[in-house]
Amino acid sequence: MTFEEMRTQLMERILQQQLITATISQPRMKSNEVKRIKLKPLILKDAYHIQIEYQFERILKHDNVLLEDFPARLDTFFNDYRQAHVDFIDEKVQVQLSKKNKVLWKSDKSSAPKQVNLAHNRKKNYLLADDKPYPFLIRLGVQTEEGKIKQQKYDKFKQINRFIEFIDDALAYLPKDRQVRILDFGSGKSYLTFALYHYLKIEKGLDIHVTGLDLKKEVIEECSRIAEDLGYEQLEFLVGDINDYNDESAVDMVVTLHACDVATDMALARAVKWGASVILSVPCCQHELNRQLNTPALDIMLQHGLVRERFAALATDAIRAEILSLVGYEAQLLEFIDMENTPKNILIRAYHTGKKPSSDQRAHYDAFLKLLNAKPFLANELQAYL
Ligand SMILES: C[S@@+](CC[C@H](N)C(=O)[O-])C[C@H]1O[C@@H](n2cnc3c(N)ncnc32)[C@H](O)[C@@H]1O
After folding, report:
1. Residue 129 pLDDT
2. How far, in Å, CA of 14 to CA of 19, rounded?
3. CA 345 to ligand 1 center in whole angstroms
């Protein structure tokens, strides 16, 4: 089979909507930061798309492409990669390309034909169902009495569901022989705090104690009332500043969802000082680094306010992840939710491992801060640990 025949065969079947999944791997260049690409079909706004998942060393990124725009993408993948495993409804295909694009094509039609389950994609299987009444969601005004999610609250509902998926993944890292202490810093109206309590305590029956902390007295008082009314005995709400919060000697999991600016850093610092096993944090607006940036070498970027703002936000999150990894955490930046829902879509996930960093890692971190001429809040807070 020639390269062109291979391309046509794959493309035709993808355009006929017969794709189940595909994995494209073996980058031609070692320097390619995307190590692997996964494809799957998906319906978005009633249109057939291909979801492209780019797997970097430590992060995943997603891009949803309309089917008619996909052929151009596939061509670039074959320029950059040499292997593909493709699962069609009735055939598994393995393609191996030589450096000069000689094609090795293996096909297996022995398994029973599969269905492309687009209906499943169309309706996401949330951990909290979107058609079942939950007392806490009704009280928080997210659902109607009948269990229908209110339209203006759908984004929030998706965010808390997604967050709970990350919490669910992290359960293996939490203690099983005693009560698990969980803190939600900057809990605000506490949609997430209630949702995680409901999921872990009521649905999974875990022995947990959850605290939501926020500066806003009235909001916290209302949350306390709701928790009491619902009989959520192990859920408490406290008024306070994250920076002054010293009530606990140990906390197992710290979560934050859109805690403003350095409030996220305060929460990360607290979590590290407690030696929390799990940290899950979706940051919010970031101003601190933006104000400090002073790097003539980057002026071509930084002269544009918009680029400066985005660069500062991304650099802040990268520095946060790096600091966590320098103080004994396996830290990753993950896509929290699609950009259509909220642009604040990076989640910092850190599991405590106690692993010591290499001297190279420390040197890279120092060089990056020197380049930016910056002294981030978290670095100051955790100076003694770094
Ligand atoms: C954007 S809201 C997010 C609320 C909630 N986590 C959510 O996602 O719905 C940020 C919250 O962080 C709280 N906050 C900001 N700085 C704080 C601090 N230093 N200590 C405690 N709470 C803080 C604010 O009062 C606000 O309620």
Report:
1. 86
2. 5
3. 17
| Domain co-membership, 186 together with 68 | no
Number of domains in the chain: 2
- CATH code where residue 318 lies: 3.40.50.150
**Residue 341: per-residue pLDDT:** 65
Most informative mutation of 160, 192, 215 for ligand 1 (most atoms within 8 A of CB):
215
Q: Would you say residue 126 lies in a domain?
A: no
* Per-residue model confidence (pLDDT) at position 121: 46
Instruction: Please say which residue of 78, 93, 120 terminates a domain.
Output: 120
Does ligand 1 have an atom closer than 6 angstroms to the CB of 259?
A: yes
Residue 318 forms part of a structural domain: yes
Do residues 155 and 344 make contact, with C-beta atoms less than 8 angstroms apart? no
Alpha helices, DSSP H only, in 81-177?
Answer: 118-122, 135-139, 154-170
Q: Which residues pair with 208 in a beta bridge?
A: 180
Looking at the CA of residue 219, tell me the nearest atom of ligand 1: 27
d(CA 187, ligand 1 centre) in Å = 6
Q: Which atom of ligand 1 is nearest to the CA of 242?
A: 20
> How far, in Å, from the CA of 218 to the mean position of ligand 1?
13
Residue segments in the chain with a per-residue pLDDT below the cut of 50: 119-122
88 belongs to a structural domain: yes
Q: State the residue range of the domain holding 89.
A: 3-120
Residue-wise pLDDT for 337-365, tens only, equals 877 666 778 999 999 999 999 999 999 99
Strand partners, 253: 182, 278
Residue ending a domain, among 92, 120, 148, is: 120
What is the reported pLDDT for 118? 62
Distance 189 CA to ligand 1 centre (A): 9
Query: Which pLDDT belongs to residue 124?
Result: 61
pLDDT at position 117 is 61
Nearest CA to ligand 1 atom 24: 186
Q: Are residues 159 and 222 in the same domain?
A: yes
Residue 125: name the closest of 156, 167, 158 by CA: 158
- In this structure, are residues 352 and 173 in contact, taking their beta carbons and an 8 Å threshold? yes
